[in-house]
Structure formats: structure tokens, C-alpha cells
Amino acid sequence: MMRPIKQFFILFSLVLTPVASAKQSTLNNGNLVLQNMPPIPVEIKAELNRYQNIRSAGFVDWADDDQSIYIRTRFGDVSQLHLVSQAGGTRYQMTFFDEPIGSVSKKPDSTELSFTMDAGGSEFAQIFVLDPNTGDSRMISDGESRNGAVVWNNTGTAMAYQSTRRNGASNDLWIINPDNPETADMILESPDGSWWGVTDFSADDKQVLVANYVSANQSGVHLLNLEDKKLTPLVQTKDRKSTNLPIAFDDLNNGFFFITDQYSEFSQLAWKSLADPTAKPVIISAAIPWDIDDMAISKDGRRAAFSSNENGRSQLYLMDVKNQTHAKVDGMPLGVFGGFEFNDRGDKLAITINTAQTPSDTYVIDLKKNPLKKGDLTRWTYSEVGGLNTNHFVVPEMISYPTFDQVNGQARLIPAFIYKPKTPGPHPVVVSIHGGPEGQARPWFSSTYQMWVDELGVAVVVPNVRGSDGYGKSYLLMDNGFKREDSVKDIGALLNWIEKQDDLDQDRVAVYGGSYGGYMVLASAVHYSDRLKAAVNIVGISNFVTFLENTQDYRRDLRRVEYGDERIPEMRKFLNDISPLNNVDKINVPMFVVQGENDPRVPVTEADQIVAALEEKEQTVWYMNALNEGHGYRKKENRDVYQQAVILFFEKYLIPNGE
């Protein structure tokens, strides 16, 4: 079964002794440890209650009757699997675990489902098979390794998946008969630290399409024969770095579809023959000057759908597979699309749609009327929004601002989205920096941003600094290696732009970000403390060398490609020189650090060490560490406290006296 390709690519603890004067308390049955933080007033909890009771309902898969759908939503503390049998119908909960479920895939011609789930945010996900008729589930992976990227074969007799089972570090490929887990067999041993994953089985289930992901700028396509385990390169990347992500076989034309940026600044949808390996690919989306995100093909192979990322917003296209012609679907909401898939008959397409004023909900397009133009779009889920009128939510404005370097003699422009209060300014500003670093800020629905706009009267600016995805491969490469701090300079240029806006208050600016965005927050505090009032660092990198040495084995080499190899003396010196931990004397802004104890990506030590260093210099620093979370907070009770604490932090340091 084909799944949207970017779902596959999206991914030690030393306890530092806290300063003796640090004040600690706990919440949520001891799972949330608070340090140097005042109690959260009941007034803040009451004010934010509605914003914290907003849900979403993303599409997961079609049910076995071809008319019902599975969605992922939260009625308790974490997201679980639900069944919806008709548009606007009741959501019937199918799983009831303490941990959120991960990826879900339906077994072909069966009611059974596979799903992944980890414990405590560790990301060491296990694979389970669920019988929705009885509610019974069973684990089929080993219970210890990290597993994911599950793809069923066409008969439902086996599934391919990625696992670190061999040595805990390598991303190998395995195949298993779910009815007999002892049959688990490694079909491809990863020769290096790169990522390998199956995206589709051939019609006869004898071969699989394989992706080899080295970095955001380099990936290749391979064909793996399951009988002799022979691996054949289909799209090479050694001589010329490029991204090439396989999607699915096209058995009608004896070829395969993939996404590539070999022939353009942007990622294009392409088709390549398997019969003639020397033939050049056919570029299907050549007329679309934007990245192609995802693609899905109907079970009968006649229809396909794909989406483009146009300045952060999505466009949907339907394609006649045989003729490889496509047309834009008219009448779609202005937002971001994902998770789309045809039903078995191929006459309906389910899709998740997210807009600035509506959380992610599931829609279905009826394709029987006119398959290449406007479909009959029906909303199937209506997620609760805490009683708020989201029609009053601010729709972000797309802006661009000049930065420090030039393109063709003109200042380079950095794209950004800005959410402004409807009241007169000048408004305090929160600069929210995305992670990745190969991520992209898009005009998503954000109850957090709307909460800040409504409750604090702040404007939120969300930039896509150099290194962001969605603006061409050259832009994506601009922050790699020794260019790392050029992206920090883009934040300095944004502060310059804010100074020139009459409705923004240059004297009240905060920075906020998670993961790599957390590093950007810390780096901004190093370089621009005199221009900032507050900083919120969520699971951020404080020292690149300790981060690379301590991140989980299975992802270390992947991160070295992006940040640089700390084992090389020249690079190690550079990474040490720019690391915020080694420049903590320059940080003179109140800091709020948020972390998950079990984070496998950015270990808790990255937070512990920056907090300890700030405390040692008697700099104001709040610290929140969730003992049952990983790379971000997935449990509602923890997320609620964190959001309330951020409001309190901004009220105290960004907007003193509640102004």
C-alpha cells in the first residue's frame, strides 16, 4: 500500500547536578519537574481552557467496507484510532492506550490494521497488529529495537519495515509474516548510517522499491529483489547530489514514480522506465515551479493524486496515470493538505486539510463526476474547537524581508508569515522559529499562536530562514556546515525589519522555537540579547559537539551530514565556537527551557547543561522537564501546563504588568 512519501522522512543521559539554590517542584503525578518557576495562577488556567481543548482529526486509512474511514484524534490524554462511518458521523474509538499511536496501515483485503507505538516518547516504536472487530492487538516486533516505515505487500501475507534490531544503530530493512513473527528476516543490511526504507511492493510481491535517504539534499532510489536480495540502483546520487524519493510502481507502464530535484531547483514528480534503465525520466510536473510533496495511486492504477507546496500553501492535482496528464482540483480550501489516499474502488479520495482557521480534519472528494477537475468535496469530521469561534482567528499574512546578503545585486528576501492582532499597535512580537533545520513554516492552524494573539495581544512572526524546505534546493543548502550562523543572521535581519514596522514594538520582542529552532533561540540570545526581552527554548541543541556525540546511534550520521562531522578537528572547533553553551556569557535575556527526559534526538543533557550554565551566571532561567515525554510533549496534561507556563513567562518578561 502506498503511503505519502514524506511520512517516511519526517525524524545517554548524564544527569547534571542542579545549582543548590534552584527551586524545584513537580506536577502531574511527579512526571513534570519544574525548576525556578513560580506557580501558575488559576486565572491563566481558566483563560486558556478553551484553547487547550481543541482537537484535530487527521485521515489514517479507509476501512474494509471502502465507505468508512479511520482517523486519529484525541478524546482523552493522547491521540488514538477512531472509526467514522459517514460524513459528520460519530467517531468510534478503536484503541485505548496510554501512549499515542503512531503510523497506521490497513492490511489489504482484511479488517486488520498495523500500527506503531512507543513508550514515553522514546521513539523506539514497536509494531502491533490490531483486530478492530475484537479490539485485540499483538506486538510482532522484538520489543527492544526501533521500528517503523511499515508497508504491507499486496496479498497481506507480509510486511516490510525498517528496524535497528541488528545492532541498535543501523537502519536495516526487514520483512515479516505478522501471523508468525519468528519469520522476521533482514532483507537489506544498511552499509552505512543512512536511512533505508521500502515504499512499495511490485504487483507480484517479488520486488520492492527502496529509498536511501542520506540527507535532505541527497537520496537515491533502488530496486530490491526479495528472492535473491539483490539491490539494483535505479536513480544514482553519488556523482551529483540530489534528492530522489521513490513513491510507487506503475505496473501498467513497467516503471515507477518518484520525486526528484535533479532537473530543477524544485522537487518534481517524475516517472522512469524499468524496462530501459538508460532512458531519461519523464518529468510530469515540469510546468509547476514548486516542490511536489506527496502522491497516491489508486488500487487499479488508473488514477493518481499529488500535491504541490506553493509558498507554503497546498495545491491538489488529479492525474490520469496512463496518459500522465494532470489538472488542478478547483474549489479546495486555502491551506495545507496531507495524508490523502484513494478507496479500493478508486472513486473517492480522502484527504486531511488544515487551514489557519480550522484544525486538521478529514474530507472526501467524490471523483465520479469529473475526475480531472472539480470534485465533490465533503467534510467528514468536525473537530471541537473549545467553543471558540475560529472564524475570528487571524489568518497569517505572507511577507518577505531583506537580509544581509544579495541575489543579483538586490538584497535576498526571506519569506515569513505574520499573525497580527486586529487591535491597533504597536504590538509586542514573538518570533517563532521552526525546527528541522530542513523544515518549513506553513500557514497551519495554530491554537498556540491564536492564543498568544488573543490573550497577550502579540504579533507572531514565523520566518523561513535559509536552510528551510520549500524554496528550492539552493536555499536548502545555504546553512549547511560552516554556513550555520548565516541562518542566525537572518533572525538579526528580521529584528531590523521589525524596527521599521509602525504596528510592531521593537522594544518588546521574544524568540521561541523547538529542536533546531531551540538552537536558533539560544543562538539568537547569544547574538541579540540586547534586542530581546524573553526566549523560549524547547528541546533545543545547546552544544553541537555534545549533541552529535550523544544523540541516538541510529540518527548520528544523518545529523553529521547536516551540521558537520565533529570528529574532524576543524569542524569540531567551529561547532564548539558557535555553540550557545560555550557563549553563555553573552546571553542576557530571561530564558525558559522545556525538555523531555526521554528525548532520543536532542538528549536531556543539552537542556541540563545550558540551564546549569545560566544558573551559574545567575541568569534568569525557568526549566520544565517531563519525565514521560521525548522530543516534544504528546500528553495533554503536560502540554497544558507547558502552554500555561509560556503565557506566564511572556506576561512576566515580554509584557510586564500585563500591558
Automatic annotation (TrEMBL):
Keyword Protease: yes
GO molecular-function terms, A-Z: hydrolase activity
Keyword field contains NADP: no
Signal peptide bounds: 1-22
Keywords on record: Hydrolase, Protease, Serine protease, Signal
Pfam families documented for this protein: Peptidase_S9, Peptidase_S9_N
Domain Peptidase S9A N-terminal span(s) in chain numbering: 102-371
SUPFAM superfamilies: alpha/beta-Hydrolases, DPP6 N-terminal domain-like
Tree of life domain: Bacteria
Residue span(s) of domain Peptidase S9 prolyl oligopeptidase catalytic: 444-654
InterPro entries, alphabetized: 6-blade_b-propeller_TolB-like (IPR011042), AB_hydrolase_fold (IPR029058), Pept_S9A_N (IPR023302), Peptidase_S9_cat (IPR001375), Peptidase_S9A (IPR002470)
Protein known as: Alpha/beta fold hydrolase
Organism: Marinicella sediminis
